[in-house]
Amino acid sequence: MQFKDIPSNVRVKSQLLHAVENNRLSHAHLFTGEDGSSSLAMALAFAQYLMCENKTASDSCGVCPACLKSEKLIHPDLHCVFPVITGKGTNPVSDHFIEEWRGAIASNPFMSEEEWYLNLGDTNKQGFISVYEANELSKKTVLKPYENSYRVIIVWHAEKMHNPAANKLLKLLEEPPEKTIFILLTSSSENLLETIVSRLQNTTIEPCDENNLTKYLMEIEGVEEKTASEISHLSSGSIGQALKLIKGSELLEQNTEEFQNWMRMCYKARIIELTSWVDMINRWGREQQKGFLHYALHMVRESLVRNFADSSIQKVREEEEQFTKNFAPFIHQNNAIEIIEEIELAHKHISRNGSSKFIFMDLTLKMVVLLHVKNLTLQETN
Ligand SMILES: [Zn+2]
């Protein structure tokens, strides 16, 4: 991450750069910014700047070995601490989740806390930073930095520290290890120990202004102007939120396309094609599979609405209109309940970590049968 990749907070960047230039660098920082703001990206860009072997007055070089290692979050002097959840053995610490962390940052360095838990496959659990984490940090800081530059310790969502962890960290801040910079990040500094806050140099990370965010979405994410400006307005300057909205609309399009494909193949009972379709969806992440089943339920219900009520209360998008018109007649009183139940059951099994391939194959075969159930009332009246 480089400073140039962050589309806002020009003042913060120049303050940090000046501090380095004038040798007035504080060893302990607190970046306060909304969840999903640029604070994590800023901390990563700052860390990379400190470690860069070829820095300019305004940014890291982005190409030296230190920069490349920082980008991939594999620099031995860069340590990230973040909330973790139970489920990976006893006393979970950040290092146990480092692969997930690298993947999550690569896909969105502005992610929210909730998105992080989603990456860990769980939205119901509350993350925490335990005393074991602080013990690990103490051990890591005993040695000198490996690469003759700074060691940087980033603590994301520092308010999630349990008290014993916070007290241990306080000791480290009071007797700072050599050449070590701490950057704590929080969206609610009132939930941090006052004794910790008083030792940190506080920097506020502002939301991105709408114009800059629009420009960023167009240039970096390739979104067209109208959508970019709508999204930056909706996300109130939160880059993380904006990226989430973009991802959401991409997923919706993918769900629409795949649901329509799936139903057509089920109706035509194309078993070989359906088998490859199941292989394809099996490669999706579990959350995405659940999202797809949610979408399927929505479309089945909308088809029922179309059949039994006034079509003006239907909630379908333009690109779904034609499909539901053709599809709705196949969803009727003799199969609707069973179809809904089967999709809900598949969703439940996916949530419980069942084999996706088996669950989707089973559901597909049932859909083939259910879509061919005759609408008896229709026949009688005919
Ligand atoms: Zn560099």
Quick rundown:
The protein has 17 helices and 5 strands.
Search tags:
382 residues; alpha/beta; five-stranded parallel β-sheet; 17 helices; binds zinc ion
Mean pLDDT: 90
Give the uncertain stretches in residue-range form. none
Helix and strand element order: HEHHEHHHEHEHEHHHHHHHHH
Q: What share of residues is helical?
A: 40-55%
In whole angstroms, the N-to-C terminal distance is 67 Å
- Biggest beta sheet attributes: 5 strands, parallel
Spatial order of strands in the largest sheet: 2-3-4-1-5
Estimated structural class: alpha/beta
The molecules bound to the chains, other than polymers, are:
zinc ion
Gyration radius (Cα, Å) is 26 Å
Task: Please tally the β strands and state the result.
Answer: 5
Q: What count of helical segments does DSSP give? A: 17
Strand content: 5-15%
Instruction: Indicate the overall shape.
Output: elongated
